[in-house]
Amino acid sequence: MSNYVELYNLSKVYPTPKGDAVIVKNFNLNIQKGEFVTLIGHSGCGKSTVLSMLAGLNEISDGGIILAGRELSGAGPDRGVVFQSPSLLPWMTAYENVMLGVEQVFFTASKLERQEIVEYYLTVVGLGDAMHKKPAELSQGMRQRVGIARAFALKPKMLLLDEPFGMLDSLTRYELQQVLIELWRKNKITALMVTHDVDEALFLSDRIVCMTDGPAAEVGEIMEVNFPRPRERKAVMEHPDYYKLREQLIEFLEVRAHRKPASPVLSAPPEPATIFVPV
Amino acid sequence: MAYLELNNVSKDFGGTPVLKDINLSVEKGEFVAIVGFSGAGKTTLISLIAGLLKPSAGSLKLNDLEITEPGPDRGIVFQNYSLLPWLSVFENIQLAVEAVNPNWTPEKRQEHVEKYIAMVNLTPARDKKPGELSGGMRQRVSVARALAMDPQILLLDEPLSALDALTRATLQDEISRIREESKKTVVLITNDPDEGIYLADRIIPLTAGPNATLGPSFKVEIPRPRDRKSINHDAHFKQLRREIVEFMLGSKQDRHTAITKKLILPDIEPEDLNIPRTMTSWRKTPIRKHELKEESVEVKP
Lengths: 279, 301
Prior knowledge:
The structure holds 2 protein chains of 2 kinds.
Chain A: E1 3-16, E2 19-32, E3 36-40, H1 47-55, E4 62-67, E5 70-71, E6 79-82, H2 94-105, H3 111-124, H4 140-153, E7 158-162, H5 170-187, E8 190-195, H6 198-204, E9 207-211, E10 219-224, H7 233-238, H8 242-254, E11 275-276
Parallel strand pairs in A: 3-8, 3-9, 6-7, 7-8, 10-11
Antiparallel strand pairs in A: 1-2, 1-4, 4-5, 9-10
Helix pairs in contact in A: 2-3, 2-4, 3-4, 4-5
Chain B: E1 4-13, E2 16-26, E3 31-36, H1 42-50, E4 57-62, E5 65-66, E6 74-77, H2 89-100, H3 106-119, H4 135-148, E7 153-157, H5 165-182, E8 185-190, H6 193-199, E9 202-206, E10 218-219, H7 235-255, E11 259-265, H8 277-280, E12 293-299
Parallel strand pairs in B: 3-8, 3-9, 6-7, 7-8
Antiparallel strand pairs in B: 1-2, 1-4, 4-5, 9-10, 11-12
Helix pairs in contact in B: 2-3, 2-4, 3-4
């Protein structure tokens, strides 16, 4: 099977006294194994809803999701999630926070092996010296590093990132994007990220999926990002296509996101609506 | 002699060095942006200029006078607005105007305050309390208060960092417009290189602390008024953006000598928790792909 992750006719409807509020409608997307895909769109367009359905944290109203040949139901450690706020347990150290999940999925491994896993991931995210500190003693950026380590340490089949750097200042954001992409490259984990930061999307992704405005958000356009990997900030920003793609994305967000594409037929095959490939 | 002069200014707190050998000269009417990481000492730097802190070494001069204490010649806009919660928009601004111009008649004072409320487009909210305003509106009050004192220099300490992207863009445009109208000298502290490029005449990076110091200054030669959208096509903008981001990220990396540390990552597979544990109980060890993976990692303390 070629598609590692399949989202088919995915919909989210909330019943309200005034009738159904359709948040996401017939969302179709296929992701290959090892691919890094980003969902971009305005606040409130429903991109986080798609991600949380994939994470199993939000019920699916219609359609479904297949991950590695199995239909998803509920949350599980096979999908590692990095939230916008790192959501660490405040009474536990960074080490204990990461160990919590590791103990669950590596229960057959030895204690030493579990320790090695936690230490490895906390060190590569740059917390080698701070792993025994509590979240309150860490800066916002360091906490988010713990969040990244925690997600990778579970060796998930898929990584879900919900505006992972939204709360950080732009320079710290650049640093953490580098940390993330290094880990992602080494582990070859399939990833889906939600963001509204155009630079972040371009630097990290293989493909950027632009979502139209909600309600009833769907896939607007899909952009292929072909910068060579491994990526370096400098090389990416110097790439002749960089600003062209950046403009296309900004233009989409400013103009086309507000326009509704023709409503797709319900039985439409799970194909992206439009593809534009950089020349 | 420049308008604002900092000569070899250093600051430490109880022996912990924060800023070291800061040299800065700002000309009259110039808009300078200082870009730096969180925790680098940006706020310390602006507090020194404001006179809220005293330098450990070096001197600061504004208009050829030594800066020794805070004064109405320097208007400050803080990141957290710092408005008095029990006073309305009008009263907050009036308080500052009254302190600076005690001899004015009430009519003149009122007219003056109204003018600045109008300048930041807050006339409809003039009698509201800060608690009834959004973050963006509160920051406008703060800007109006600083300007109403008619300071010689405006110090903006990450004024827009706490706001969402859209409000930030609107307020950036507003700061840009107000600055064009008032022709004030401005020092802006920010952590967003894009914001600096969009607003300033000159950008100076502050290297990562401790012992943070100012890097080379980058002149922004993009004609005004600047347009957010078309600036993207500007080759100079792209180059500046790249150079500043590179300098900032580089400055942080140079700070620490990396130590190589050997780490072991067991190459084992996680268990499928959907399968009841009793079924896997016959297997006591995880699925192992290869032998241990050893890796040398550069660690930066």
